[in-house]
Design brief:
Chain lengths: 63, 822
């Protein structure tokens, strides 16, 4: 059972790492907006037009 | 009503004669105006077409001038004094700007702004939050100026405003709470495993070395949890004690400290009774409750600065005959300021040059723009909707302005509210005192026979009777209900609104812009004599094209082959102009009759406004103008009545139109020509009779009325101020969510009752067990948290429910395609 004299401090060290990582994530704003990013998945690059030369054309046909 | 359909970009009907279109994905999409055309073209050429696929609402129609090329208003934001409020310099190069973005009403808008701004050189990071309408931009000030960023947003059709940095306070609070929660959570997991080991060890025999080791480790982990995560409770308890009252934090802090000290003492003595696990668990679950509460509170924060938003941030001051752009805050009494058409007035003052029309509807409720000439007063926040620039002399600034006065009125009306909150606090205080006494009594009872058991039982009482589930019962249900309401299109801006909405018995509607669309249309043409109605309409249209009066908007959609020239406006009368050598007038009967020298025509006694067209021989035709009832109004009212509510109209408009609307909607109770004071009096009378009144309105003139109501609901299309003062805001330009909201509010109230009942039952059952010493504190902590989980899960069913049992009417096709498809 002496192993717990090693394992528990190791576990505590891991906990320390986890808390540090979480603090970093919070400080980095990862938890600031929990709704918006859900939409960004749906909206990203594949919604871009395939060809760049297909430009919008202005068609004012007012006489 | 219009065969050309609606604008691809903003969804508004395309005026006749407007043939603009934009080529998107090889398809020609019609747009209604140059503004929409420019924005749509910009979006397309930037490769951001995805916006159109994902959006759930049509885009705002860009204001005139917002997207215009050439010199514009944004440059002024590069000046130091103007930047003070909303810009923060993070270091030598990087700055952070906080902007409020008007009309940003769905996540797609936020996406669009985010993606187009990210492409600009110098933009480091930005967060756009559609819920709060805010954008936080971090950029390198050596590479891009803040004016360029604002211009980029404006080009997309959204108007950016500088915003004060108060959001960061809420954000900071949230971040800190998350950190405390994480520390407590991780700590709890660790300490619990050690506790289980010690616990089993107590039965199966454990080497005291290991036991002491585990206890020491638990102590090591618990200490930061208590000091860091538990800090808010100590802070709260201290504040309570200083104020000589007993809040919920007192027994919590006491329980934590006692359990901790007792554990330390027992651990040092080598005893089994160690409660570190209970301490961490207790703190963690309490923090979860606090976090939910905080989230609810943050949702309720609604920008009170929207009032100030009415005032333009910049003004054009005339210094020695030259125009200088200055911050509106820099204006002083006596300054001469120019206001161009389309601009808002930055301060109260008196016109010294020029003449134009001003829309004061947001301040006075007067829906027609008012003519203001030399010597007339203009008020800050009103908008020059006429065609001419004016100059005025500043007479009042800052707190003295009419706008600020309205704001103070609002605050006072709102200050009368928190009586309910006080009552809740007092009851909780009594409860807490009782718990403290019970704990002390339990300790005193057990102490002579078993001092250890006495401590354990007293701790169990303190922990188990923590009014956690009780405390969570209401906020968790309210948060879930609020969330659900927001999905339906009704934003809860004040937390108590949901509770009150459930109890509402009367709903009072404003008319203009609430039950009606607020957009004037031509309802009927009555030709006089042998005039051809089509020709009369064409002549009238030709004349009205030269006017910016709201009545003219009704004509703008019509086509005409005629061209009017030498058109002049007679204030309070109408228009006069020449069409092909024929002198014509359109306006009031008297004004038109003056031209021909005949008797003025008598207008029919009915609900609408009329204008008369005439030439030198006499009147030609009459046009009836109508402000149409919202298409969903009838359905909404029917549903409200099915829910057992009384519906009333209180309007500032003339009796006839109000009566007509009431008749069409089947409302028997209505009152017309009411001032805000009258409306308030009517609401007070209803309240005295025992009614709980909800008011649905849209203008700032309604603001005191809205504040006097038990629940106020403002139209999202209404003015910014009404949104801030109202307890609830309709997110879309539709009345429909009002009825759905009442339904959800009632379900929320039911869940609150269930939750409170459950929490109470739990406490009643657990307290005797704890007092008898049967409950180990960790069991108490677990029981307490389980009861909280039950309460939260019960609340979540409110938010999760996807089916809409009560709304059978089909939704907007647009929201169906995006909302449900994913």
């Amino acid at each position: 059972m002496e192993i717990i004299f090693v394992m528990i401090p190791l576990g505590l060290a891991l906990m320390g790492v986890a808390i540090w990582a979480f603090f970093w994530a919070v400080g980095n704003g990862q938890f600031d907006d929990l709704e918006g990013p859900a939409y960004s998945v749906l909206l990203d690059d594949d919604d871009q037009p395939k060809q760049k030369d297909e430009r919008a054309e202005q068609k004012p046909r007012n006489d | 009503m219009n065969e050309l359909g609606s604008c691809f970009h903003c969804g508004e009907p395309i005026p006749r004669g407007e043939r603009r279109s934009v080529l998107i994905n090889g398809e020609e999409k019609p747009v209604c105006c140059a503004g929409c055309e420019a924005v749509a073209t910009l979006i397309h050429s930037a490769g951001l077409d995805g916006y159109y696929r994902i959006r759930t609402m049509p885009a705002p129609r860009p204001e005139d001038g917002l997207i215009a090329e050439g010199p514009d208003e944004w440059d002024v934001f590069d000046r130091e004094p103007v930047q003070k409020g909303f810009l923060r310099r993070l270091d030598a190069e990087v700055s952070e700007a906080n902007l409020l973005v008007q009309n940003m009403n769905c996540p797609a808008c936020a996406w669009l702004i985010e993606h187009s701004l990210r492409r600009l050189d110098g933009v480091e990071d930005l967060q756009v939050n559609p819920a709060s309408g805010r954008a936080l931009l971090r950029f390198r000030s050596d590479r891009i100026a803040v004016s360029q960023l604002m211009r980029a947003i404006a080009r997309l059709g959204y108007r950016p405003y500088p915003a004060a940095n108060f959001k960061s306070a809420a954000q900071e609070e949230r971040r800190t709470a998350l950190k405390r929660l994480a520390v407590a959570g991780f700590g709890m997991m660790q300490v619990s495993t050690y506790a289980v080991s010690v616990w089993f060890g107590a039965f199966q025999g454990i080497d005291p070395v290991y036991r002491d080791y585990l206890n020491a480790i638990s102590w090591l982990v618990t200490t930061p949890v208590m000091l860091y995560s538990g800090f808010p409770f100590f802070q709260g308890a201290l504040r309570d004690l200083k104020a000589r009252r007993v809040g919920m934090d007192v027994p919590i802090a006491l329980g934590i400290v006692l359990a901790y000290l007792a554990s330390v003492w027992n651990a040092l003595q080598g005893l089994d009774r160690v409660y570190f696990d209970s301490v961490t668990m207790f703190i963690f679950f309490l923090l979860v409750g606090r976090y939910i509460e905080m989230a609810a509170r943050h949702k309720a924060i609604h920008s009170t600065e929207a009032l100030a938003q009415l005032i333009p941030p910049i003004a054009r001051r005339i210094d020695n005959g030259e125009e200088v752009r200055v911050a509106a805050a820099e204006l002083a009494v006596g300054d001469i300021v120019a206001v161009a058409p389309g601009e808002a007035v930055p301060a109260d003052g008196e016109v010294v040059w020029g003449e134009s029309r001003f829309d004061e509807s947001m301040l006075t409720g007067e829906s027609r723009p008012l003519r203001r000439g030399v010597g007339d007063a203009v008020i800050a926040g009103s908008v020059n909707t006429g065609d001419h620039p004016i100059r005025f002399r500043v007479e009042r600034t800052g707190d003295d302005m009419v706008l600020s006065t309205i704001g103070r009125l609002l605050e006072r009306a709102q200050a009368q509210r928190p009586r309910l909150a006080h009552a809740a606090d007092r009851i909780a205080g009594h409860f807490v005192v009782a718990v403290l006494f019970i704990a002390a009594a339990v300790y005193a009872y057990w102490w002579p026979s078993d001092p250890q058991l006495a401590l354990q039982a007293a701790l169990a009482v303190l922990v188990v009777s923590c009014p956690c589930a009780l405390g969570l019962a209401t906020p968790s249900a309210l948060v879930a209900g609020t969330d659900r309401l927001a999905k339906e299109g009704l934003l809860v801006a004040r937390s108590d609104a949901l509770e009150t909405l459930a109890k509402v018995t009367h709903v009072v509607f404003d008319k203009t812009g609430t039950l009606t669309t607020g957009a004037v249309t031509i309802d009927r043409i009555v030709p006089l004599g042998s005039t051809d109605p089509v020709q009369a309409l064409q002549l009238a249209t030709a004349l009205e094209r030269h006017s910016a009066h709201p009545i003219a908007h009704a004509f703008v959609q019509q086509e005409t082959p005629y061209q009017a020239d030498r058109v002049e406006t007679r204030a309070g009368g109408g228009l006069e102009g020449w069409i092909g050598g024929r002198r014509l007038r359109i306006g009031t009967p008297v004004f038109v009759a003056e031209l021909s020298g005949t008797e003025p025509v008598a207008l029919p006694e009915d609900q609408a406004s009329w204008v008369v067209l005439g030439d030198e021989s006499g009147p030609l035709a009459m046009f009836r103008l109508f402000d149409d009832i919202r298409p969903e109004a009838e359905q909404t009212l029917a549903r409200l009545r099915r829910l057992g509510l009384q519906v009333e109209i209180a309007s500032g408009d003339r009796l006839e139109p109000v009566a007509a609307v009431a008749k069409r909607l089947g409302i028997t109770q209505y009152a017309a020509a009411m001032t805000p004071a009258d409306k308030l009096e009517r609401i007070k009378a209803l309240q005295r009779a025992g009614a709980v009144v909800a008011v649905v309105g849209d203008g700032i003139n309604d603001a005191p009325v809205l504040a006097g109501a038990d629940v106020s609901i403002a139209m999202g299309s209404g003015t910014a101020l009404a949104q801030t003062s109202a307890a609830m805001v309709l997110l879309s330009d539709s009345l429909r969510p009002v009825a759905g909201g009442v339904d959800i509010a009632r379900r929320t109230a039911r869940v609150v009752r269930q939750n409170l009942g459950w929490a109470l039952l739990y406490n009643v059952l657990a307290l005797p067990l704890a007092a008898s010493g049967w409950l180990h504190p960790w069991m108490a902590a677990l029981g307490m948290s389980l009861s909280s989980v039950v309460v939260v899960v019960n609340a979540m069913q409110l938010a999760r429910k996807r089916s809409r049992p009560h709304s059978t009417e089909p939704d907007d096709a647009r929201s169906l395609t995006t909302g449900e498809a994913f």
